[in-house]
Amino acid sequence: MTVGTTHEVALRMTGITKSFPGVMALQDVDLEINEGEVHAIVGENGAGKSTLMKILAGFYQPDSGEIEVGGRNASHWNPREARTRGIGMIYQELNLVPDLTVAENISLGAMPKRGPFVDYRAMNAKASAVLRELDTDIDPGTRLGDLSISQQQLVEIAKVVAREPNVVVFDEPTSSLGDKETRVLFKVITTMRDRGIAIIYISHRLREVMEIGDRVTVLRDGRHVETRDVLGITPDEMVRLMVGRDLSEMFPKLDLELGQQVLSIEGASREGQFDNVTLDVRAHEIVGLAGLVGSGRTEIARALFGLDRLEQGTITLSGETVKIRSPRQGVAAGIALVPEDRKGQGIIPGLSVRENFTLPVITRITNALLIFLGRERKIVTEMADRLKVNPPQVERPLNVFSGGNQQKVVLGKWLLSKPSLLILDEPTRGVDVGAKADIHHIIGEFAQAGGGVLMISSELPELLAVCDRIFVLHEGIVAAEISRADATEESVMRAATGQEVAA
Amino acid sequence: MKHFDIALIGTRAVQYRLLVMLLAVAIFGGVSVDDFLTMDTLQSVIDRATVVGFLALGLTPVLIAGQIDLSIGSMMSMAGITTIFLQPFIGNLPAAGVGVLVGVLIGAINALMVVVFKINSLVATLATLLIFASLALLLTNSYPLSSEDPIFGLPLTADFLVILTPRSAIFLIAAVLMFVWLKLTPTGRNLYAVGSDASAATSSGINSNGYIAASFVLSGFFAGVAGMMQSLSTAAGSPVAGAVMLIPAITAVVIGGTRLEGGRGSSLATLGGVLALGALTTALEYNGVPSYTQAIYTGLLLILLISLDRIVSGNSGTTSRARRSVRVAPRNSPHPRRNA
Amino acid sequence: GCASTDSGTASGDSDGVEGKSICYVTLANSHPYVTPANEGAQAAADAAGVELTIVSEEFSAQVGAEQLNSCVSRGVDGILLWPADENSYLPGLLKAEQAGIPVVAIDTRAGEESMKLIASFAGADKYDQGKISAQQLDKALESTGGIVVIAGQAGNGTEIARSGGFLDELENLNSGLEILATVNADFDQQKALVASRDLITKFGADIKGVYAQDDTMAKGFLQALEESGLGFVPVVVGINGEAGAFDNIREGKQFSTILQPPFRNGELAIETLIAVMKGETVPEMVPLENTVVDSSNVDTLEPAM
Amino acid sequence: MNQLVAPARDLDKSTTPGALFSTLSIPIAIVALVVIGSIASPSFLTVNNLTNVLNANSAVGLVALGMTFVMVSGGLADLSVPANVAMGALVTLGAQDAVGIGAAAALGLLVATLGGAVNGVLIGYLRINPIIATLGTGSVLLGLSQLLVGGGIVYSQPNELANFVKSSILGIPVLIWVFVFVALILHPLLARTAFGRWNLAVGGNYRAAQASAVPVRFTKAAAFAMTGFLAGLCGVLLALSNGQARPIIGTGYEFVAITAVVIGGTSVFGGNGSVLRTVGGVLITALIGNLIILLGFPSQATGLITGAIVLAAVGVDAYFRRKAGRQ
Ligand SMILES: Nc1ncnc2c1ncn2[C@@H]1O[C@H](COP(=O)(O)OP(=O)(O)OP(=O)(O)O)[C@@H](O)[C@H]1O
Ligand SMILES: Nc1ncnc2c1ncn2[C@@H]1O[C@H](COP(=O)(O)OP(=O)(O)OP(=O)(O)O)[C@@H](O)[C@H]1O
Ligand SMILES: [Mg+2]
Ligand SMILES: [Mg+2]
């Protein structure tokens, strides 16, 4: 891609500083975005990417610094002003209203009017048009809450696109999109860029950055490190700039002798979600579960763990057939599940790291009556050290930690339950490269120590790097079982899209 | 093409159940009481529903915005005593206006507490409930005020269009207007958005705090109207008039199908709830059922309807592949609800 | 309020009221005084063969006003009303008059305007009870010393009458009694107990007399007194003639109470209403006798409840 | 400025104004009330008065202790308290003749606990909004209790249990002992046991707690059942000490209890709170009520003053939290 040096500067942020109690989120950050460029921003969890964008969108006020949009000063504005001045924002968390329809969501805050009333016809027409542009057949009249997460993510994007903004910020838009949706999104982004819109693209997936970005800005610890043309930088260099040191992106795969069968599922079904699923995991083994979004991977994990009911089929754990009807029974049977929706199901925001850590096992560190606080503190501190939770303050409430560190706590919480089977659903979603390496390391250690791992991930390279075997789901059915040796992006994708059926 | 999803069927069920209730009450009343099914009964049912109806109408936008207002009864008492107290000083009509204004003012205080001082609405309005109930007693020295012009308010409950009275006609019109506002105008839709997810609404450029504040002021306005109407039609301003009104008002709104969690509801449903409850009360009264037994019936009804609602729109439904994308109550919804 | 005979025309035949219907707007369904009164009304109605529908306003005049309207639109032959405040019933009473339905009030009087539309009142004279209580206290304390008033539910008609009669009579008597404090304990023993504890703490033996507007609250005060262990014996007067008060009078803890039998009150009210419906002339007020109970006659009388 | 802010219930290490306010507000408020009281009335700072204050508020205090668990577990509030208080009281006195006072009291407790358990099932297992559910059950139970006694009033026969409840041990009334005893059990139950941790977790994030193998439904239901039991206990004690009971016996207790819990600083959103703070809240509300009478304010002013204090306390707390950026 050619960098539009001839283009006007769409947006300039200078000397932005922002602190939250206890954290310096941004310090003297400069950022300049041109019209018609895709400007990527990368950085570790907590580097300040989202905060910078929220300041741009008027959600936070900077402690100091200037913002200039389209040549005009815009230092202190609110979300509405930001929007009317053409800033479109797709946040890391979905910002949609579940009880309104898709069309109403898309027009939210600026519904077309006829007289004093909402012009529903115009509104639906507009929504249909934008959704068509995004290549999806979501009905504009559907209640938003009835859509799947990836569909909601598309609506979120449609909502911003529909407003025809001059600057669009994508804050990790692909973290809950599958490959197919990602392709569509990239097409949309390219079209927008070609129309002269300035685009800011935040992602932890460096491959995406390399693919779609024109320039990239690296943030580290709330400071601006460097802005470079994407053409002139390699992923390794980017990682080095982000973490300030060399780092191999992936944990080196250990070759371990596989042990006893830890888990075997036979003929597992749940109406409308998955059908006749048979798979197994052995000790020391990391088994991947691949598939397109909506292929039923999460539901299998939930049913295994007892969060949903398994309608048919048997589960055998270490040779024993078990019935698991609740997470409690799941834990008792030696299963742990790191859920995909960290904010919704992983963490208790108001509780401290310590209390989050010991939640599933709290009855194990309790005598007849009381919790052994000393012992609790000890095992928690040890685990926090092992996982490099940063900052290492276990009495701090979990909600003030960055996403990656929250994820480590969720992982640690389940490691403390000493499971024989660890199920991971998108364990590195929204997690930066450094933390991702840490997490892979922890998973590897767990397998090394004799546990079995069932890992769901939408990032194929991650699965390929980490797993010994991969089961591929297609519309709730196991389409293929692929060994490490045979697993390539192509073979997995073919199975996932239904072009290849298991023998 | 019409798109029927479960939410829509759920909404239908909500409307339907009110009709079923009204019908059941009519049959029950008709069978058990002589001359129950008359225009006079209908007039009396609608008229009796008016005061609690105004309170319930005011409560509806507050609940849609995901908040709660426990202070409606106290606002109503304050409005009532103001209306009667001021009559000799500034005249009947201005006094009625100021009465309503008192409701608006207290509503504004609620709004201030919730929006500016960020006090949870359950706590804030519990406090204003206590404060203004107490103030009403202090101001009147606990004695109900008698109007010096008891005839002035009487036309409010006179015959009007066979089945109505002037005040019940105003109530019906208000309910319809509110329905139009909520369902068909952008500001109405925005209110639903705020109740459904305030932070998402804010990031869409909606002034969520403004809407929440407005809903409290509106609730104050309607409580003011309720108090004004009540005091005029009974020619007395009682400091405890509103004390017993909170529970029937909430019950009526909820029976109508408006959720306490915000984001859903309708003023016509509230109207239905108010009428259904009023009709039931009247039928039971005509049968000489003691008030405590009536309380048992209304309580059971409330629990039953809300449980049904839960089951109809709840998360227990199994989903089929055919309806993949149209599910109710997403389990992985990214919108964990923080408040009631 | 004149006792008019012409309102009786609504009932047509002057002899038979059998099969006629009466709507009774009562104060409450569940209350130590009101419940027996309701039972009395029911008994009298059964005896006369009239159909009685009881609806309860649950202490709320506004609810009662609406029930009154609803009774009128039902077209009953007579209405018995327990007013919970002075004026709220006016519109309903006007409608009743228009419809030619006679109304009788029970236990509590409505306001002056309203009483003009009410054929008769059957019940104890609460105002008079207040006066009697003032006289009792004034006499027992020889018109000197501090007293506390434990009043009923603020704004309630009974409370208003019993307070009014009491205060007016003190003035009337030119009494030297000094009211140290007035608290509203809502005719509730627990509330009276809590308030009395504080009163006893604050005034101690300065409390020479206690005017409790019913015996339940008198009991609450006596309980607090016992707890305090202070051992002074104030003159406690109550109202209603409850069994507990009889015991306390026998034991010398309470000075007096005023007997007001509720069952009889209900009967009397229905009998009065039926008389009106028949077209008979009834007095403006059909009083329930206020009998003072003290140590001299406590063993000869039956408690009211 | 760049200081770490600890949550409200974990303050020892923190020195920001908000945290300081949260820690010290209750003791300061109590001290302030005591000072005002001693200045206002010589009879305030007497053993007798203070015992009375506590005694009068012990019964409703029990309800507040239960309500703490309801709020912490994200159950908002239990509005069926008056009904369960009435049930406890009426059953105790109503069944006295039939089964004897001891068994009758036990029966009263049982019935109230069942009432609470019904709330628990509706709220915990059916996941109905607590305000609606308890409004409904409150209505039903209060109606039933009135039906039970046919309206009116039930009296107690003289009995040993009542005498005991009315007596004092070491100069302190039994009611106070009961309150202190229950508080001493419930405080560690919330702060130091798995059940308490579950309550905090369920109130903090229901679905995450569920996915962490916390018995979420049971926890929520238990909080309500417990409040039902304590409301019943409140009713039993009131009935025994008063020697009579009426259906309106617990009217308004739900508000008093909520007020005490909220003044104590427990969040209505759930996820944090402490029993000790509620005890502080009970003391504060009790002292306010006492002062109003001692200062000679009309008793109708109680609501005004309590309401204003609730607004002030919660408002200032919310202000500091917002300043600390974690509202
Ligand atoms: N509202 C807040 N209150 C306190 N601290 C906050 C708040 N928002 C962000 N922070 C802190 O500011 C820092 C920057 O956070 P930010 O969310 O901008 O990071 P990020 O680069 O977007 O990370 P991620 O990749 O995990 O999304 C982090 O340390 C975070 O904990
Ligand atoms: N929150 C949700 N609400 C409604 N339906 C959902 C939700 N999440 C998933 N689904 C639906 O459930 C089915 C299986 O989804 P599941 O989450 O198991 O897929 P997955 O392969 O894990 O995909 P993902 O990458 O999104 O987690 C799909 O039809 C999907 O649309
Ligand atoms: Mg971010
Ligand atoms: Mg998934």
UniProtKB/TrEMBL annotation, chain A:
**Which residue ranges traverse the bilayer?**
none
Instruction: Provide one Gene Ontology cellular component.
Output: plasma membrane
State where the protein is found. Answer: Cell membrane
Recite the UniProt keywords alphabetically. ATP-binding, Cell membrane, Membrane, Nucleotide-binding, Repeat, Sugar transport, Translocase, Transport
Q: Which domain of life is it from?
A: Bacteria
Q: How does it sit in the membrane?
A: Peripheral membrane protein
Q: Name one GO molecular function term.
A: ATP binding
Locate the ABC transporter domain: which residues? Answer: 11-246, 256-500
Mainly localized where? Answer: membrane
Protein name, as recorded:
Monosaccharide ABC transporter ATP-binding protein (CUT2 family)
UniProtKB/TrEMBL annotation, chain B:
- Pull one GO CC term from this UniProt entry: plasma membrane
Q: Where in the cell is it found?
A: Cell membrane
Main localization is: membrane
Q: Which CDD domains match?
A: TM_PBP1_transp_AraH_like
Question: What Pfam families does UniProt report for this protein, alphabetically?
Answer: BPD_transp_2
Span list, region Disordered: 316-340
Q: Does the keyword Electron transport apply?
A: no
Xref: InterPro entries: ABC_transp_permease
Identify its membrane topology class. Multi-pass membrane protein
Q: Which UniProt keywords apply?
A: Cell inner membrane, Cell membrane, Membrane, Transmembrane, Transmembrane helix, Transport
The Swiss-Prot or TrEMBL record annotates one GO molecular function as: transmembrane transporter activity
User: Would the keyword 4Fe-4S be found if you checked this record's keyword annotation?
Assistant: no
* Chain ranges passing through the membrane: 16-33, 45-65, 72-90, 96-115, 122-140, 160-182, 211-229, 235-256, 268-289, 295-313
Q: Residues of the signal sequence?
A: none
Name this polypeptide is given: Monosaccharide ABC transporter membrane protein (CUT2 family)
Automatic annotation (TrEMBL), chain D:
Per UniProt, what is the membrane topology? Answer: Multi-pass membrane protein
Question: Where's it found, cell-wise?
Answer: Cell membrane
Residues crossing the lipid bilayer are: 20-47, 59-81, 101-125, 132-155, 167-190, 221-240, 252-271, 278-297, 303-320
Q: Which UniProt keywords apply?
A: Cell inner membrane, Cell membrane, Membrane, Transmembrane, Transmembrane helix, Transport
In Gene Ontology terms, what is one molecular function of this protein? Answer: transmembrane transporter activity
The main place the protein resides is: membrane
Q: Name one GO cellular component term.
A: plasma membrane
Protein name per the record = Monosaccharide ABC transporter membrane protein (CUT2 family)
User: Which source organism?
Assistant: Rhodoglobus vestalii
